[in-house]
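Person: Please work through this fold.
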Amino acid sequence: MKFKAEIDVMPHDALLDPQGKAVTNSMKNVGLAEIDGVRIGKHIRLFVEAENQAVAEQKVDEACKKMLANQIMESYHFSVSEAN
């Protein structure tokens, strides 16, 4: 079966996010001063062939741990659904 994974990788809250800080500081320049605390991360979509959803989730988790997220600096969350 083919599954689709949607993965969000974000810097840990305790770490400085220079990109997010720059965007936060720029919000007032575009008339959006009420927006604060911007954090910038990554969104990854991938497809995986697996016997079932549990195996697909295991493979996605392994990919996140081995390549897609630096667990020292980032956290990740994902969802897996059957691909259309």
Observations:
- The chain is about 30% helix and 30% strand.
- The chain has a mean pLDDT of 97.
- The chain has one domain: 2-82.
- The helical segments are 18-27, 53-68.
